[in-house]
Design goal:
Rossmann fold, hydrolase, globular, about 350 residues, alpha/beta, Metallo-beta-lactamase, Chain A, 9 helices
Length: about 350
Amino acid sequence: MSTFGGTLVEYERLSVDRFDGRNVHSTAFLLSHCHRDHMHGLDGCAFRRRLRSRRDVRLYASAVSCRLLLNEPKYSWLRSRLSALPLDAPTTLTVPADGAAGSEYAVVVTPIPANHCAGSVMFLLEGERGGTVLYTGDFRLDMGRAPALTSLHCDTGRVKPIDAAYVDTTLCRPDAAYVPTRQESERALVDFFAPKFQVGWSLRLRLPGAKLGYETLFASLALAFGVKVHVTRGQMSRYAGVADVVKCLTLDAETTRIHADCECDLGPACVTVKPSAMWFAHRVAPSRLVERVADGLHRLCYSTHASLAEVRDLVRYLKPRAVRANVHLRGVDVGALLGVADTREPTWNFWGSDDESA
């Protein structure tokens, strides 16, 4: 659960993933993805008044996130105030002035795929105003994959000097040091269900509250078993226009034996699997990614957030001058877990909910 307050130290009047409180005084807004804990205030009256008060105040997101937003009727009013940013393409944005609150300035924003959920991106910000800043939002990046993020490198191939990195610390805790990759988790589920599928059983997925984020799981199941995943009309309408996801889904429950969050009567030959990450704390092992918890009910170790090891890997590769946590974990010394007590490591600053209310 993100506790990031929305404002960046380096770039004033630019808010990210928060649209309430002091953020309504900003003049440019970024949305990394469409999960509720990153959308506080987005449907609020104060934010609506802010965007409608000036033509030069806009909300920026990836093209898929824009589509997901507009698929929800309560966000339809954003259509004329919403701008899609192309992936891995630097785009110069103007952060407008606001009366006596300083002059307008330019910042180059590059959205980088974050592999967290459909449409999710990191934002790389570059400009004279605040230097080079990386905001990861929520992300999942396998170990050793940072060199493949071309937008974080200069034309010569060297890593861009990062002045500050705001990182996803959701799983920066000792019991989440090892988290299987999505591919490992998806393969474990396929291997678990394959014998049952062959004898006519059905699979029901019970998704956690954040329904977005399981698109690659749908794709893996559809590919492995040659059938689409049955979803509700609500789920299908949420993904309308997102072709890569919709092609794996169906509204016809009779044509498949894989179902997600439906209430169909699937009979006794059905196994229910709930993807989750934190339930596996102290339990997870590479050989036990699917655990039985009751008759017909299993848990799948599946994370859309980077593990402690993956966050450490990214931070040590980029070597930013400062690192700031997007998630405040009470009682957990994230700096110590990442080894930032070493003077060669970047400084660590917490942005907890207590600090943000000040």
